[in-house]
Design a protein that fits this description.
Blueprint lengths: L1 E7 L7 H14 L4 E8 L14 H15 L3 E7 L7 H9 L2 H4 L3 E7 L6 H8 L8 E9 L14 H30 L12
The structure holds flavin mononucleotide.
Length: 199
């Protein structure tokens, strides 16, 4: 059974990314190979941006999130496309945390666009792995026209919603399989020794 953390990367309160993150959390909570699915919403700005020293309360928040990430077996990152980029709060996560939290754990990238965007955050996240050694699934998800789906409203685009719902189930099944498989890698991993960072 797997513990999953879903991180939503929007800086906006009540964002579409959080809407999608909650929908994914609910699916995982009903998955027979998922023990827990917890959400981290980066729009609350509880985590400070990386700097050289922190206040006591900032350090406490960093440690609280660290223990959540460390006890996670797998991740889902729900990321809006902002000016063709990943928002800064999401990149900051990979400054604050690295191999000890993410190393050799699977992550599903899900991007969100109000229109027909959504590919740039996928590419950018796929290139963000060197020191953390996170393992992105070959599958990813793109929720396009996100304002028209998963609102629980009659006038939603029901065809697109049904397609993305099925596709989400499909990707989450893979996430759970990779999560089972990569536990063996972590259990048998050699020490990092002189190779603390990736090349
Ligand atoms: C600063 C900013 C930049 C944005 N840039 C893009 C973009 O490059 N491509 C795109 O498809 N949508 C863009 N959007 C619109 C988002 O797709 C839209 O806000 C969507 O709801 C996902 O973001 P959210 O999770 O914050 O709601 C941008 C939105 C903001 C606030």
């Amino acid at each position: 059974m797997n513990n999953v953390t879903i991180v939503t990367g929007s800086h906006r309160r009540d964002s579409e990314s959080v809407k999608i993150g909650r929908m994914i959390a609910e699916k995982l909570q009903h998955h027979d190979n998922c023990q827990s699915a917890e959400l981290i919403d980066l729009s609350d700005f509880a985590l400070p941006y990386w700097k050289e020293s922190y206040s006591e309360s900032e350090q406490a928040e960093i440690e609280r999130v660290r223990s959540q990430l460390q006890r996670s077996d797998a991740f889902v990152f729900v990321i809006p496309e902002w000016n063709g980029m990943v928002p800064a709060a999401m990149k900051n996560l990979f400054l604050l945390y690295s191999t000890a939290e993410f190393g050799h754990k699977p992550a599903l990238i899900a991007s969100v666009s109000a229109s027909i965007g959504g590919t740039y955050p996928i590419n950018e996240m796929r290139a963000t792995y060197k020191n953390s050694r996170i393992c992105y699934l070959p599958e990813h998800l793109i929720y396009r026209d996100v304002g028209t789906i998963f609102n629980g409203k009659k006038n939603d685009n029901k065809d697109a919603e049904a397609y993305m719902s099925e596709r989400t189930d499909f990707a989450l099944n893979y996430l759970m399989l990779y999560s089972d498989a990569l536990k063996k890698v972590r259990d048998n991993a050699p020490e990092y020794g002189d190779f603390g960072n990736g090349m």
